[in-house]
Design a protein that fits this description.
By secondary structure, the protein is mainly beta. It contains three helices and 46 strands. It has a 14-stranded parallel beta sheet with strand order 1-2-5-8-13-16-19-22-25-28-31-34-37-40, with helices on one face. 55% of the residues are buried.
């Protein structure tokens, strides 16, 4: 076992995420292949140094986990034996450090099956849980997984590569959450949550008087059938009672497929959250800014695919920004309109409807939706306050279904500028800030996106500065004259594309064989191992220290070169280790970097 350590790269640095196989699929596969090939072509030399104090402790029961944690030190790893853990109430409580978290992981990804009445409680700091699978059971009390134990809430803890599938009680009216996030600075990533049929949010963030700063990313939220009552959200950030408090939770790079539990796919009930670069497919609901203020909805992709009741983004509250989103094929109306801006209630209680004020809805592209923009949604004898002082600017809206704009109530001081609308009737008296013109969008690309053609009137035609809009939906920089809509026509690399199931959820080992998997040239006549396996890093994608494991047949030196997607070396140190040899088995390494 060999290790190398480099703590000089901070958590979450973008090029670190793309170096290793944390983001698989179209771009991630290239990173994986290059890394494996680099290992092969350098004759297997390895960056290494020793951290002898870190231990691996094998555990086979919840009691053994509790006993091990009583003596665990930062950097230790508890490895759960493969097999069925039936009716296991696992408590993972303790304290690691930023540079040496304590880990609880499956012996092999997905090989620890938590069944029956199994649950997990995480309590402490710098703890990582990796690779569990919950199935064939239900929670008898509380959430399936909670980031707290015995009153101790978690900070800087992480749940990764874990699945919860069809973990339902017999009675659909039984209310519990699958994942409950308490505390602060926690993360849920590369998990798969599918098949919830009973009452209760799939994943919920609970607030307190201090912000959360949680991160929810690269997860696959699968089918959730219609519940028929309230309480079927896929994600809820906050509650009505705490909705005027800041959470600063980031929900990004997740895939939502057929999340049909209720009208709110995501229910934002707090302030200052970010919802970006997510993909929604065939979801019969909307990303809803239900309570709270100052949230950002940016760079998301919505594909209704012609399914009834599929919605987009619903706005309630003050100072929200909705920008760079691409929404197409959505069939919802009213509360599920593509862009729904609601009416408010005078003297609203926390659990009612605050008036929309100063919403900025800019640089979005809406293509082929049934109800493109609806302002004043919900107008009634109670909801009498129309949106006030909002701006809708630099939008591309095209559809044969109309009207393109519906005023369910007349907004107060709504500013239009730089918009290009086309297709069905406008639906309102044309203001100065809307031009009726064919945006000349090209045919859909392989991702289902229609982009401006070479002669499109949206090119370099945006009005106003909008300093907060610095990139487009692809993650490409916007500089100089900006294009109207979510897409800035550019030759820069595309950083964000609509996600598929191959891009999210638990990470599996990836095998690469032979030189055809790389553009690198060995050039020195050394043999290329026939079977190289690069395993997911632990933790994944990256805390300040990350373990990278790979297996390679053969013997000799090992060296590890790490490349970013652009093939440029990120400047990590390179060291050699002593020789290794073995008989008829692959050798396993850990690399800290």
């Amino acid at each position: 076992m060999h290790e190398s350590k480099n703590t000089g790269i901070p958590f979450g640095k973008p090029d670190r995420v793309s170096v290793f196989p944390c983001c698989r699929g179209r771009k991630g596969e290239k990173a994986i292949v290059r890394t494996v090939a680099a290992i092969a072509f350098t004759g297997l030399s390895l960056i290494a140094s020793a951290t002898a104090e870190a231990r691996e402790i094998r555990v086979g029961t919840p009691a053994e986990i509790t006993a091990a944690m009583a003596a665990a030190q930062p950097g230790d790893t508890l490895t759960m034996t493969s097999g069925v853990w039936s009716n296991a109430s696992v408590v993972f409580a303790g304290n690691g450090t930023q540079n040496a978290p304590i880990m609880l992981r499956a012996e092999a990804p997905g090989a620890v099956s938590m069944e029956g009445s199994s649950t997990l409680r995480i309590g402490g700091t710098y703890l990582v849980v990796d690779g569990l699978s919950f199935r064939n059971g239900y929670s008898p009390s509380g959430g399936v997984i909670e980031f707290r134990y015995n009153g101790l809430e978690s900070r800087y803890c992480r749940l990764t590569n874990t699945s919860i599938v069809d973990y339902n009680p017999a009675d659909a009216a039984t209310d519990y959450k699958w994942i409950s996030l308490y505390g602060s600075y926690n993360r849920v990533d590369h998990c798969s949550l599918k098949g919830k049929t009973h009452v209760g949010t799939t994943l919920v963030v609970w607030l307190s008087a201090t912000p959360n700063y949680h991160r929810i990313d690269h997860n696959h939220f699968g089918l959730r059938p219609p519940l028929g009552v309230n309480g079927g959200e896929t994600i809820r950030v906050g509650t009505s009672d705490w909705s005027m408090y800041d959470s600063y939770t980031v929900v990004e790079q997740n895939l939502f497929e057929e999340c049909n539990g209720e009208a709110e796919i995501i229910s934002s009930k707090s302030c200052g959250n970010i919802y970006r670069n997510n993909t929604f497919r065939r979801c019969q609901g909307a990303l809803t800014l239900r309570h709270g203020n100052r949230c950002l909805v940016e760079g998301n992709f919505f594909f209704g695919e012609g399914v009834s009741n599929t919605g987009g983004i619903r706005v309630i509250g003050e100072d929200h920004r909705v920008q760079n989103n691409y929404l197409t094929g959505l069939k919802g109306t009213g509360y599920r309109a593509t862009i729904a801006v609601m009416n408010g209630k005078p003297n609203s209680l926390l659990n009612e409807y605050y008036q929309v004020k100063r919403a900025s809805i800019v640089f979005n592209t809406l293509v082929g939706n049934s109800s493109s923009i609806d302002v004043g949604v919900g107008k009634s004898t109670d909801l009498t306050l129309p949106p006030e002082d909002c701006v809708i600017a630099n939008m591309v809206v095209t559809s044969t279904s109309g009207p393109l704009v519906r005023f369910t109530d007349t907004p107060l001081n709504l500013r239009w500028e730089g918009n290009v609308f086309y297709g069905a009737s406008l639906g309102i008296t044309q203001p100065g800030g809307i031009v009726i013109a064919d945006p000349q969008l090209a045919a859909a690309d392989p991702y289902g996106l229609r982009r401006p053609g070479a002669l499109s009137p949206v090119l370099d035609a945006a009005v106003g500065t909008y300093d907060t809009v610095t990139q487009d939906m692809d993650g490409q920089d916007r500089s100089g004259l900006k294009d109207i809509g979510a897409d800035e026509v550019s030759a820069l690399p595309v950083l964000h594309v609509p996600l598929t199931a191959a891009d999210v959820g638990p990470v599996s080992p990836v095998t690469a064989v032979g030189p055809e998997h790389s553009s690198l040239n060995p050039g020195d006549g050394r043999a290329i191992p026939e079977d190289d396996i690069l395993y997911p890093p632990y933790p994944n994608p990256f805390n300040p220290e990350t373990t990278l494991r790979f297996a390679a047949a053969g013997s000799g030196h090992a060296a590890l070169d790490v490349y970013s997607l652009s093939s440029t070396h990120p400047g990590l140190p390179r060291e050699s280790t002593s020789s290794f040899s073995h008989a008829a088995q692959a050798v396993l390494f850990s690399v800290w970097c």
